[in-house]
Write a structure and sequence with these properties.
The protein has 420 residues and is an alpha/beta fold. The protein has 2 domains: 208 residues, P-loop containing nucleotide triphosphate hydrolases (Rossmann fold), CATH 3.40.50.300; 151 residues, Rossmann fold (3-Layer(aba) Sandwich), CATH 3.40.50. Helix 2 packs parallel to helix 3, helix 3 packs across helix 4 and helix 6 crosses helix 8. The longest helix has 30 residues. The termini are far apart. Bound molecules: adenosine monophosphate. Adenosine monophosphate binds next to helix 3.
């Protein structure tokens, strides 16, 4: 199936083309027509299956047919509630991406930050509101948000929402929603309490389900090396001695880390390139093309830069660090072993990341195979709270010194001083 077969508005199709989405994922192919036809939907799907687009695309399409202004101001017709700030931001970004050729506007609101920027945006009017429950209720109570006009409501990651104790918040939000609306309800798992909540929200829902994302992890052989922080580079070079690893997509959590890894590999004459947010679109494109053409062996990428890149027949993914969000791990390893090809993921874990591995194993419901033949095994223990504090203090100090030195150096250069 192609997106063109779903009767989508050309502006949406154009945006999807820009993202290089060629065909809908399973949940999209199932859910989009049902949502477009006006049904309530009960979706069993996890992050990583493409579920955001499964609800965002048909909602954008609905909004394009709506009268969206009232007294010259946008009225909020769609509300998407999701449990975490990260998910909220991601959903907001996805909507902006898919709606970039329309004048649909979204705002993302979440707690833990000052509310000023969020309320300013709300005052200007938004079509779609993406929110975490606590901040949503807070701003509703303060009169910044009215749900009176909501026609399209999404409850995302319902099981996680209940795990996080948001049930009362959700029930309060539900009482403020208009009775006549279309509701979409997504959850990775469907235990009794979730089914019961969905019964409170949905009317004659159509059910759609896709294999949980954890099962995509089953098609990838996963290995784990545990090591000390100081041995990571040596261990990576040891791993790359294996000629079977012809081409590798290597993930780094930070841009700075990605550059450092690339520099270390270059020193050892390993052909590589780094892609991340500080590199221009041209640089990124060139790196990707070089990688696809086999001119470079290791493509070092941050999670954001790797989003949406599709490399055919990629067999190896290396996690130079362990992501703190278990879903990110699943996204990462999902980059290899696509379309029936068997993939291999190799993760490198330092003591501070041991806990992240446990979270990942819980999500994917399996143990990652520990590699015992490891010349650089983990001997350090994770830091305790006091050590962590001290470490952060030191880091901050070093950072300040670095910037102070740089400022001094720049100042000297401006004055025409030459370094001897
Ligand atoms: P989600 O499950 O919504 O978090 O999406 C997981 C990832 O898949 C995101 O990085 C999306 O940008 C990407 N994605 C969603 N739909 C498609 C598609 N049809 N083709 C390719 N990538 C997609």
């Amino acid at each position: 199936m192609k997106f063109e077969d779903l009767n989508l508005n050309p502006s949406i199709l154009k945006a999807l083309k820009d993202e290089n989405y060629t065909e809908p994922t399973s949940i999209q192919a199932k859910a989009i027509p049902l949502v477009l036809a006006g049904n309530d939907v009960l979706g069993s799907a996890q992050t990583g299956t493409g579920k955001t687009a499964a609800f965002a695309i048909p909602i954008i399409q609905h909004l394009l047919t709506e009268q969206r202004n009232q007294n010259g101001k946008r009225k909020t017709l769609s509300l998407i509630v999701t449990p975490t700030r990260e998910l909220a931001i991601q959903i907001g970004e996805s909507i902006s991406t898919y709606a970039k050729y329309t004048n649909i506007k979204n705002a993302v609101i979440y707690g833990g930050v000052k509310q000023g920027a969020q309320t300013d945006e709300l005052k200007q009017g938004v079509d779609v509101l993406v929110a975490t429950p606590g901040r949503l209720l807070d701003l509703m109570n303060q009169g910044y948000i009215s749900l009176q006009a909501i026609k399209y409501f999404v409850l995302d990651e319902a099981d996680r929402m209940l795990d996080m104790g948001f049930i009362h918040d959700i029930k309060k939000i539900l009482t403020k929603l208009p009775k006549k609306r279309q509701s979409l309800f997504f959850s990775a798992t469907m235990p009794d309490n979730i089914i019961s909540l969905s019964n409170d929200i949905l009317i004659n829902p159509k059910k759609v389900a896709v294999n949980p994302v954890s099962s995509t992890a089953e098609t990838v052989k996963q290995f784990l090396y545990t090591t000390n922080k100081s041995s990571k580079t040596d261990l990576l070079l040891h791993i790359l001695k294996d000629p079977k690893l012809e081409q590798v997509l290597l993930f780094s959590r930070t841009k700075h880390g990605a550059n450092k890894i690339a520099r270390n590999l270059e020193k050892k004459k390993i052909k590589c390139a780094a892609i991340h947010g500080d590199r221009s679109q041209n640089q990124r494109q060139k790196a990707l093309t070089d990688f696809k053409e086999g001119k470079i062996r290791v493509l070092v990428a941050t999670d954001i830069a790797a989003r949406g890149i599709d490399i055919d027949k990629l067999r190896y993914v290396i996690n130079y660090d362990i992501p703190n969000e278990p879903e990110t791990y699943v996204h990462r390893i999902g980059r290899c072993g696509r379309a029936g090809e068997e993939g291999v993921s190799i993760s490198i874990c330092e003591p501070e990341e041991n806990a992240f591995v446990r979270d990942i194993e819980k999500l994917i419901n399996q143990k990652i195979q520990l590699v015992r033949d490891n010349p650089y095994p983990q001997t350090d223990r994770p830091m305790n709270q006091a050590e962590k504090k001290e470490f952060e203090r030191e880091k901050q100090k070093r950072k300040q010194e670095h910037f102070a030195n740089r400022k001094k150096k720049n100042g000297n250069q401006k004055k025409g001083f030459r370094k001897k």
